[in-house]
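Hi everyone,

Forwarding the result from last night's run.
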Amino acid sequence: MLTISEAFRKFRKRLEVSPSEEQDASRRQQVLRSQLRDTLAVKRDLLMGSYIRETKTKPLKDVDIFVILEDSEQSYAQGAPDQILDLLIRTLAPHYPQIGKRNRSVKVDFGIAEDADDHIFSIDVVPAFEFGRSYRIPDRRQGGWITTDPTVHADLATAANAAFSEQWKPVVKMIKKWNDYQGRPVRPAFLLEVMALKLVQPPWTGSYPRELRQFFASASESINDPWPDPAGLGPPVTARLAESPTERAAAVVALQDAEHACTRALLLEQDGRIGAALPAWQLLFGPHFAKS
């Protein structure tokens, strides 16, 4: 039987993106980028989101691509978000039968079963225009275009990880795996990462269980705070929750339940009941958390 420390080290390893997943993601990105460039006036493109911030967990469900368009396409930036997203759909539909429109992107679904190993399931394509040193992207929920900069988000994650003895990203991955396994009570998942920038602070204690319990306790008390874009550009990351009291209340309850579950598991370990503590942790995080 594993010790709790061994189980969490194994859990951390299981959440890491494998080389074959990276190769699959790279191949699919390159093909999609080429297809876009054949039709659209693309200035350049870049990876964004949790994949490039290295806070993406397994399975590697999706990867985000920022497609930065040339100034000649600026007329779209004056129109409704649906106009540019519909353009992307028309461009990619001949190549991919499963395409859906999201709030800020177009999702290209590769039709891969979620139990398939070492494959990405989809790519989210986000159209963007350069706006000084930042970018403008469509936001259907806001009814227009917003300013953002994914490179700032990536830099903040890297700095937080370095300050936390290279353990901040693993902790965030565990938190996001909890959210995924529990049915995503906190949306967007990026909100958890933003909260962790403030709530998961050095020094690293050397204990994943205690860091996780502390995060859930603090997050349940502060999720109703505004939580602005850490780049200081776009709308608050809590904009979605602010619109839905029901979702906001459910998120608070889920975080409180997670804290209580962590406390129970820690007490079981304290009492020497490792055989009961390991299943308790697995109930929180799902089958990626190994009991043996």
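The longest strand covers residues 122-131.

Cheers,
N.
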